């Protein structure tokens, strides 16, 4: 499970963000001051840090600098009320990967989280995704169910790639539309159901066990 460290000294804001990240399927650790955050960032196996700029004990900017000085390259999204160009530059120069200005919508923050996680995954060479007896190779664009090669169209492949990137997580239709078809997709409203059906026909062509399941009223999940 993707592990995110959330660093925010305002308890109500931290709780709101923690709940939203947890609902999206992430494992979340929370720190409320700079020194605790720095220790957690060094000791935990993290995939991303959401870091407030203004913190008791040590600023988010100083945490960025210290982590980068020791070679820690975990993606960092900086949260701040500072909106001047010079402040943005200071945050990025300190080592932050992204910058979200308060007040922000939770949807914007979640989109930034997904984008940064996607970017780091693309640069770490995770080219083969596996779940149960299903495997997908991003380089060759081949999909196998056990030893059986499955021929997929480009969009079927993209949809399966996205689902395999989030195993056992219930993914909503809106999120699939945003991530696979594009946020402003204006096509057939039943497009996801159509492609899910196509995938199932191909994944279960030899009467294999159904692993692409529907969660009624919510979305879809890969579950063995």
UniProtKB/TrEMBL annotation:
Residues 126-224 bind DNA. Keywords: DNA-binding, Phosphoprotein, Transcription, Transcription regulation, Two-component regulatory system. The modification 4-aspartylphosphate is found at residue 52. Residues 126-224 form the OmpR/PhoB-type domain. InterPro entries: CheY-like_superfamily, OmpR/PhoB-type_DNA-bd, Sig_transdc_resp-reg_C-effctor, Sig_transdc_resp-reg_receiver, WalR-like, WH-like_DNA-bd_sf. Pfam families: Response_reg, Trans_reg_C. Residues 3-117 form the Response regulatory domain. Gene3D superfamilies: 3.40.50.2300, 6.10.250.690, Winged helix-like DNA-binding domain superfamily/Winged helix DNA-binding domain (1.10.10.10). This is Response regulator transcription factor.
